[in-house]
Amino acid sequence: MNKVEFDDRRSFVLGLGCERGASPAEVLALARSALQQAGITADDIAAVASIAARTGEPAILNAAQSLAVPVIFFEPDVLERETPRLANPSDIVFKLVGCHGVAESAALAAAGVTAALILPKMKSPHATAAIAKTVLQND
């Protein structure tokens, strides 16, 4: 999937990052905590987004399935283009995966060029989450 379908009801993207083999329960709990902290619900989410290296990662797929939304994955070079818009760029993450952030970058990349982070990166022991809001024409 390369394109997220947004509408008046679903105008947010949940970006997720995790270590390989992270617990699906931990990642889902972090995702739900992020939604709660942002003051939105699963019904407001258009998609979950992450890095291509996590394609097939059970924790990411479980979160998207539990929230009943599609999941979109981006290559590191696409995520790296989002670095100027990140609240928490990380040189450590860059050394590990080739971009300065996963959760924030993925949320922004999926939400589009006019999107903004409404919830910067938050962490659990083995995962990260961030939320971006797309700007619809009638916003």
Automatic annotation (TrEMBL):
Organism: Rhizobium grahamii
InterPro entries linked to this entry: CbiG_hydrolase, CobE/GbiG_C, CobE/GbiG_C_sf
SUPFAM superfamilies: CobE/GbiG C-terminal domain-like
One Pfam short name: CbiG_C
UniProt-recorded name of the protein: Cobalamin biosynthesis protein
GO annotation, biological process: cobalamin biosynthetic process
Stretches assigned to the CobE/GbiG C-terminal domain: 13-132
